[in-house]
Amino acid sequence: MKLAFASFAAALIACGPAATRTLSSPASPSAARPVAAPTAAATVAPPSPGTSQRPLEFTMQEFALPRGQGPHDVAPARDGGVWYTAQLSGELGWLDPKTGTTKAIRLGVGSAPHGVIVGPDGAPWVTDGGLNAIVRVDPATSEVRRYPLPANRPNASLNTAVFDRDGTLWFTGQNGVFGRLDPRSGTLVVSDAPRGPGPYGIATCPDGEVYFASLAGNYVGRIVKETGGTMILTPPTSGQGARRVWCDSKSRVWVAEWNAGQKWREWRLIGPRPMVYAVFVDDADTVWLTDWGANAIAHFDPATEAWTIHSHPQPNANIRQLLGRTGEVWGAMSGQDKLVVVRSSS
C-alpha cells in the first residue's frame, strides 16, 4: 500500500512561462460568452535535483452561472456537458461548454446538494445533505429519484460518493458516517465512522480498494468491504485535516490536507497562507490541486516534483472540487458562481 500526500502548508515560487486565460461574460449569467482577459503569469517551481523540467502550459476558461446557485462539485457528463451541484439553490445544474448555456433541475424542497458523480449508468448521482438522501437524476428525462437514509440516521451531512468496480455506490457523511447503496436493489446501509465526525472525500482505486478522508478525524480510512469495517491510516503530520482523496493508475492514494497546509510522503505548497481543498489525478498521473490561500489551481508532476501554480485574476474563486476527463480538468468556483476548465496546451 503506497500513500502519497499533497500538503499546502508551504510554497514553491519561481518565475515561469505565462499561460493564457479566457473569461466568460459576466453580463449573461446563463450563457458564458468567452471574452479576452488579461494574461496571468503562471508560477513555476523548480524541479528536484537530477530531473528535467518541461514547463506545463495550459489555458483556463471560466463560465458564469446563474447568480445565487452556489456551485460546489462538478462531474463531466457523457454528452460533453458538465453536471454541477447548485448547493444554495437546491438544484443540479448542467453546462454546455460549447455555448455556455445552462439548465437546472430542482431536487426537492430543502435540497442542499454537495457532491455529484457520473455512475456506470451514465446518470449523475448526488449526495444531498439537505434531503439527507442519495439522489439520481435521469440524464434524458430529468426524473429525480431519491434514496433517503434510514430514519435513525438524520442529518448525516452527506458529502461525496464514488462507485466501486462492482457497481456499489459508497458515500460519506461529515457527521460521522459512511455507507453504501446498491442501485440494483435500493438497499442502503449506513455505518459509524471511526473517531466520529469528519468523513469527507472518497475515492475508488484501480485495485478495487475504497478510501475516504476524515477532515475532523485527521486520517485516511480504507473501507474493508467484506466486513463493513474501516482500517485507519494516519498521515505523518498531526492535525493535518485530510479533506479530499484521489487514486492514480498505480492505486497510490493522493490526499489534500486542509490544515497541514513511501508509503507516506508529503509535498508542501509555498505561500503565506496556503489552503488545499481539492485534489485530482488526471489520466497522465499528474496531480491537480486547488489552493484557497493563493486563490489558485496548482499542477504537480510527481516525476519531476515540479509545480505550476496559476492564480485567478479575481479574488475568492473558492474552488471546492476538481474532476476531469481526457484533456480537461473542471472545477466549481463557489465564490463567484462560475465553473472553470483547465485545458493543457503542451
Explain what this protein looks like in three dimensions.
The protein is an all-beta fold and 346 residues long. It has one domain (3-344): 7 Propeller (Methylamine Dehydrogenase, Chain H), CATH 2.130.10. 0% of the residues lie in helices and 50% in strands. It contains no helices and 32 strands. The protein has strands at 3-7, 15-19, 21-24, 34-36, 40-44, 58-64, 71-76, 82-86, 91-95, 102-106, 113-118, 124-128, 133-137, 144-148, 158-163, 169-173, 177-181, 188-192, 199-204, 210-214, 219-224, 229-233, 242-247, 253-257, 264-268, 276-281, 287-291, 296-301, 306-311, 319-325, 328-333, 338-344. The chain has a 6-stranded antiparallel sheet, with no helix packed on it. The chain is globular.
Short description:
This protein is an all-beta fold and 346 residues long. Helices cover 0% and strands 50% of the residues.
Which tags fit this structure?
346 residues; mainly beta; Methylamine Dehydrogenase, Chain H; 6-stranded antiparallel beta sheet; 6-stranded mixed beta sheet; 50% strand; globular
Radius of gyration: 19 Å
**CATH fold annotation:** Methylamine Dehydrogenase, Chain H
Fraction in beta strands: over 45%
Q: Would you identify the CATH H-level superfamily?
A: YVTN repeat-like/Quinoprotein amine dehydrogenase
CATH architecture annotation name? 7 Propeller
Give the N-terminus to C-terminus distance in angstroms. 32 Å
> How many strand units?
32
Number of domains: 1
Say what oligomer this is: single chain
DSSP helix count?
0
Strand count, sense and closure of the main sheet?
A: 6 strands, antiparallel
The side-by-side strand order for the widest beta sheet comes to 2-5-29-28-27-26
The averaged pLDDT comes out at 82
Runs in which pLDDT lies below 50 for 5 or more consecutive residues are 5-41, 46-52, 258-262
- Fraction of residues in helices? under 10%
Main structural class: mainly beta
CATH class: Mainly Beta
